[in-house]
Design goal:
With 298 residues, the chain is α/β, with parallel strands linked by helices. It is built from ten helices and eleven strands.
Length: 298
C-alpha cells in the first residue's frame, strides 16, 4: 500500500542521511493538538473495560493482514486484535479503514483526532510500522506492542528458476511483478542506472502481483514476505535474498495508541508480549501459512 511505502522510504532516507544521534536527541517537543470541539479523544483503559468493548482500526483490503471474505472480517491483524481484546476481557469491535495519503494522516484520522468527515477514532490501530525517529516526531501517539518483523522477499516460478534463485540483478532480463508505488516498486525502478525498470510489471495490489506470477505473466514477484507467502501455489516458491543498496529491507509492525492513554498502551504491550512468549502469536501466523519473525522482546 502506498502509505507504507512513503513511511519506509522516509526510514531509508533517515538511515542514509547525516551522523548518528541518540534517540530523539535532535527533536524539539511540539504541542499536542486535539479537535477544537472536544477535550477528550478516545478512551482510557478503565472506560474500555467498564463498557465491555475495544475499538480496533485495521486496514481494509490488505490480505493476509486484514480483509473481508464472504462477509467476514479475517486476517492476521484481526486475530491479533481479538487476542488483545481477550486479554483485556472485552469484545473487539473492528473498523476496516482506508489507507490515507501517508501514515501521519492515518494516525491523525484513527488515533488522535478523527477524520474530517464521518467516522471516529479507534482505541488502537494495528499494523503500524515502527521507526524510532518517526516515533519521536509524532508525539500524539504511543507506538507499542511490536509483534512482527516484516521483510522484503522475492517469489518466483519454480520452473523458471530450477537451480539458481532470483536476485534483483536477474531482472535486467526477467520480468518481475510488484504492487504499484510500493517499496519494491521504488527499489527496483531506482536500481543503479535504471537497469531493471523495463522489466517491472505493476499491479494495483500485492495479491494482484502474485496472481500475475501464478498465471505466468511474470517470472517473479517482489514485496513483503507475508503478502507473497499468502499467494503461493505449488508452482511457486519464495526466498529472502540480500538486497544491494537496500537500507531498510526489514521493519517491525506494531500498535498505535493515543498518547494520553498510557495505561492502555501498557496493557496492549503486555498482551502481545505474552502471546509471543506462550506461542499464541506463532499459532496465528501458522494458521495463515506465514513465517513468523518475532521482534526482540523488551
Amino acid at each position: 500500500m502506498i502509505r507504507r511505502a512513503f513511511l519506509l522510504t522516509s526510514i531509508i532516507g533517515s538511515l542514509l542521511a547525516g551522523p548518528a544521534l541518540a534517540r530523539c536527541e535532535d527533536h524539539v517537543p511540539q504541542p499536542k493538538p486535539q479537535n477544537a470541539s472536544r477535550d477528550i479523544v478516545g478512551a482510557d483503559l478503565d472506560t474500555i473495560i467498564d463498557r465491555g468493548y475495544i475499538e480496533i482500526a485495521a486496514y481494509e483490503d490488505f490480505p493476509p493482514w486484514s480483509y473481508e471474505e464472504d462477509g467476514k472480517i479475517k486476517g492476521v491483524d484481526i486475530e491479533i486484535g481479538r487476542l488483545i481484546a481477550a486479554d483485556l476481557g472485552v469484545e473487539p469491535r473492528f473498523k476496516l479503514v482506508t489507507a490515507g495519503e501517508n501514515l501521519d494522516a492515518d494516525l491523525r484520522n484513527w488515533i488522535w483526532k478523527g477524520p474530517l468527515i464521518g467516522g471516529s477514532v479507534a482505541n488502537v490501530m494495528l499494523h503500524i510500522p515502527y521507526d524510532s525517529d518517526y516515533a519521536c516526531r509524532v508525539e500524539q501517539v504511543v507506538f507499542t506492542g511490536q509483534y512482527h518483523v516484516e521483510e522484503v522477499a522475492i517469489a518466483y516460478r519454480k520452473d523458471a528458476y530450477p537451480e539458481d534463485l532470483p536476485v534483483p540483478a536477474y531482472f535486467r532480463f526477467d520480468t518481475v511483478a510488484v504492487e504499484n508505488d510500493s517499496i519494491a516498486d521504488f527499489y527496483l525502478t531506482s536500481f543503479p542506472g535504471g537497469q531493471l525498470a523495463a522489466n517491472v510489471r505493476r499491479y494495483p495490489t500485492a495479491a494482484g502481483a502474485m496472481q500475475a506470477l501464478a498465471d505466468g505473466e511474470t517470472k517473479a514477484a517482489m514485496g513483503p514476505l507475508a503478502q507473497l507467502e499468502f499467494g503461493l501455489t505449488e508452482e511457486l516458491g519464495v526466498h529472502t535474498p540480500p538486497l544491494p543498496g537496500f537500507a531498510a529491507g526489514n521493519w517491525t509492525s506494531g500498535v498505535a495508541v493515543h498518547f494520553a492513554y498510557r495505561g492502555l498502551s501498557y496493557a496492549v504491550d503486555d498482551a502481545i508480549v505474552a502471546a509471543i512468549q506462550d506461542g499464541r502469536m506463532q499459532a496465528i501466523f501458522d494458521s495463515y501459512g506465514l513465517t513468523f519473525r518475532p521482534p526482540e522482546l523488551r
